[in-house]
From TrEMBL:
<dbReference type="Pfam" id="PF07690">
    <property type="entry name" value="MFS_1"/>
</dbReference>
<feature type="transmembrane region" description="Helical">
    <location>
        <begin position="27"/>
        <end position="47"/>
    </location>
</feature>
<feature type="transmembrane region" description="Helical">
    <location>
        <begin position="358"/>
        <end position="379"/>
    </location>
</feature>
<feature type="transmembrane region" description="Helical">
    <location>
        <begin position="391"/>
        <end position="408"/>
    </location>
</feature>
<dbReference type="GO" id="GO:0005886">
    <property type="term" value="C:plasma membrane"/>
</dbReference>
<feature type="transmembrane region" description="Helical">
    <location>
        <begin position="229"/>
        <end position="250"/>
    </location>
</feature>
<keyword id="KW-1003">Cell membrane</keyword>
<feature type="transmembrane region" description="Helical">
    <location>
        <begin position="262"/>
        <end position="283"/>
    </location>
</feature>
<feature type="transmembrane region" description="Helical">
    <location>
        <begin position="115"/>
        <end position="134"/>
    </location>
</feature>
<dbReference type="InterPro" id="IPR036259">
    <property type="entry name" value="MFS_trans_sf"/>
</dbReference>
<keyword id="KW-1133">Transmembrane helix</keyword>
<dbReference type="InterPro" id="IPR011701">
    <property type="entry name" value="MFS"/>
</dbReference>
<feature type="transmembrane region" description="Helical">
    <location>
        <begin position="295"/>
        <end position="313"/>
    </location>
</feature>
<keyword id="KW-0813">Transport</keyword>
<feature type="transmembrane region" description="Helical">
    <location>
        <begin position="325"/>
        <end position="346"/>
    </location>
</feature>
<feature type="transmembrane region" description="Helical">
    <location>
        <begin position="53"/>
        <end position="70"/>
    </location>
</feature>
<feature type="transmembrane region" description="Helical">
    <location>
        <begin position="91"/>
        <end position="109"/>
    </location>
</feature>
Length: 414
């Protein structure tokens, strides 16, 4: 029994040899489900709203979407450091309150300035609550693994499944409410986070067993000198940039093929349904057959193949159902790649982090990748607006995850 497991009270300790989660882990996993229902009720429809209702140019839409990701992912390091210092509960509650305010503001924002302000607030809210929850899930997963409760990747796969279940429900809810208007969608998202805030104020313990708060300053210097960790961050950032094309390149392709944004909700649902139904078997297979590095490399190559598929089909300019098939293939390959990349990347972080700095390192993983997405999304928006041959933007995007394979750490820790 390791020091993390010994610190847990008996009712929260995993039984020796058990393949189950603890009550605390179940709460955190359900938290991810609730977060994503509220978030994905709004986000898939943001690009269309910015381009039509607000009247932004394509490059500006890409910049705003990248800014949203950067204000979230890029500031995860702040949320992670605050979690190490003050604990999980206050950081989660503060983030939920800011998300409520951000969605409410976005629903009434009509100009570029207010929209950017609302998007920044929405992103920073997640920069608080997400690293708090993710780092605690990773910490508990390590304790469970070392107590004989199964590999940590299984817990992180469950966490991914919960998030994707929320990502499945959210767009369907948003599409239903969009029949009214975008403001209604935003207010519904805010309402969901009100419920999340109230629930966690009641259920989440003030002091989580086994978590020791870090009072000493520092930690950034050793992190910046950790080449293996930074390599993981950059490879994960390439994956996240590719995943972000669900909100930028994919909507443009769906609009071109069908003349409508309506199929977008169903493609998001397809992605989420694949993760919900197959993430655990894929994680089990990958854990038995592949090292962590090979799992991430295989996932990145599948993601690249998804972009290449659309690039190959794009010059034909097919429309209707036939024109939508390459986009559906892209979603499938991207999703399978995600299933191989995301749980393994999160499971790798505890082995690369300094003791007592798991929140900081969990946040830094997303911060570095968020910076990559900010730059990459603006470039993607420009590519889509330049009038280049139709396959070129997709071929450029296909090259990004392939290049990222070389950045993965060579020595294994998982």
């Amino acid at each position: 029994m390791n020091r993390l497991t010994r610190a847990l009270p008996p009712r929260l300790r995993p039984a020796a040899g058990a393949r189950r989660t603890t009550p605390l882990l179940r709460l955190l996993i359900l938290t991810q489900l609730a977060f994503n229902v509220g978030f994905f009720a709004v986000l898939p429809f943001l690009a269309e709203h910015l381009g039509t209702a607000v009247g932004m140019a394509g490059w500006l839409v890409g910049f705003v979407l990248g800014l949203r990701t950067f204000s979230q992912q890029g500031l995860f390091v702040v949320g992670g450091a605050l979690t190490d210092r003050y604990g999980v509960r206050p950081v989660v509650l503060a983030g939920c309150a800011l998300r409520v305010a951000g969605f409410g503001w976005l629903g009434y924002a009509e100009g570029t300035g207010p929209v950017i302000g609302a998007v920044l607030l929405i992103g920073f809210a997640a920069a608080l609550f997400s690293p708090a929850v993710e780092s605690e899930v990773a910490r508990q997963a390590v304790a469970l693994e070392e107590a004989g409760g199964g590999p940590r990747t299984r817990v992180l796969a469950l966490f991914t499944v919960a998030g994707q279940a929320g990502a499945f429900i959210g767009p369907l809810l948003g599409a239903l409410l969009l029949a009214s208007d975008f403001r209604t969608v935003c207010l519904a998202g805010a309402g969901i986070f009100v419920l999340v805030l109230a629930g966690h104020a009641w259920l989440l313990p003030q002091h989580l067993p086994g978590r020791r708060r870090t009072t000493a300053k520092g930690g950034i210097g050793p992190l910046l000198r950790n080449r293996r960790f930074l390599g993981l961050c950059c490879a994960y950032g390439a994956y996240l940039l590719a995943y972000n094309q669900l909100y930028l390149a994919l909507p443009a392709e769906v609009e071109r093929a069908t003349g409508s944004q309506a199929p977008l909700a169903w493609l998001f649902a397809l992605s989420s349904l694949l993760v919900v139904t197959t993430q655990l078997p894929v994680t089990h297979w990958a854990g038995a057959q592949l090292t962590a590095r090979r799992s991430m490399a295989a996932g990145l190559l599948l993601i690249s193949a998804g972009f290449a598929l659309v690039a190959a089909a794009r010059p034909a300019e097919r429309t209707g159902t036939a024109g939508l098939l390459p986009a559906a293939g892209f979603v499938v390959l991207l999703t399978v790649g995600q299933m191989l990349v995301a749980p393994v990347a999160r499971a790798w972080v505890p082995d690369l982090a300094e003791p007592g700095r798991l929140g900081l390192y969990t946040g830094a993983l997303s911060s570095v990748s968020g910076l990559i997405v900010l730059v990459g999304s603006s470039a993607t928006g420009t590519l889509l607006d330049l009038g280049l041959p139709p396959a070129v933007p997709w071929l450029v995007l296909a090259a990004v995850p392939v290049s990222a394979v070389w950045l993965l750490p060579r020595r294994q820790a998982v």
